[in-house]
Amino acid sequence: MTDSSRRLQQRAALVLGVLALFALAALVLSGMTGSVTIPLADMPAALGAVLRGETPTLAATLLELRGQRALAAFITGASLSLAGVMMQALLRNPLADPYVLGISAGASVGALAALMLMCAAWMVDAAAFGGALAISLLLYLLARRDLGDGAAAGGVATLLLTGVILSSACMALVTLMLSIAPDSRLRSMVFWLIGDLAGAPLRAMPCVVLAAALIFAVKQARAVNVMVLHAEAAATLGIRVGALRRGLFLVAALLTASAVTTAGSIGFVGLIVPHACRFALGPDHRLLIPAATLAGGAYLMLADTLARTVIAPEQLPVGVITALVGAPVFLYQLHRLRK
What we know:
The chain is mainly alpha-helical. The protein is 76% helix and 0% strand. The protein has a single domain (3-338), classed as ABC transporter involved in vitamin B12 uptake, BtuC, CATH 1.10.3470.10.
């Protein structure tokens, strides 16, 4: 191993270690903070009671509820951020995010239709996941040639345009449903569209999807570097460009569908977090992929903590916080990049 490779590995270990500690601190802060604050000195006893399955105290009960919501926020934020990295690499466009191809819009159609029909919560989740997968499949069928080995910049533009058109069609259906929905259902429908983690369950499936997607992304990180920097010459360098593009698209679509099903359409996480990590750490996807995953999860945990506490005991949709924070941060990043 050369000195340069050793230094790169040491830097990656340091960065990921700091981000992991940051995510852990965000988790602890989320567990402590709320309408009723849990003192830091009471956290170990409350955590021990939760791990043993005992919740005899108020602190342990609150910690269990907040911990499940914080972990759901971490999984959702990490999934959106990782999907954003993949979409930006696939489209070779730093402005791309997990929602740019209409996958979230398809989930919105399914979820709002189920909410308008007053379906059970699990049926709303199933309808959202089905809508996202349906749009992903339709987009893949319409643009499968543009994901092949011979697809160049024009093919990527066609893929992006197809996604924008499908997204517009889905949002027209969303507008139609909002206009004819009864007043008793409008609030829940609007909250879902904005993105909300209140009552979001911690399920095993999003964790499995995130873990599998992260393993795939890390294994393909070198190939992604070559494809992003040398797209035209990637095939001659031994990269199976078509298979890599299809893999990035399918995995990013699955991550987006999983995240949207859990918490609704939370914006800006998959856009500003990969941007910030790329700006701070560089474009090497071997470091960017795990760093953006950790940073996205920690960021959404902090945003959800703020949404729960800023006007406590009332709660804001977390999508409002991510939009209010994300818009100026993104404009600042664009300003710094221009300079």
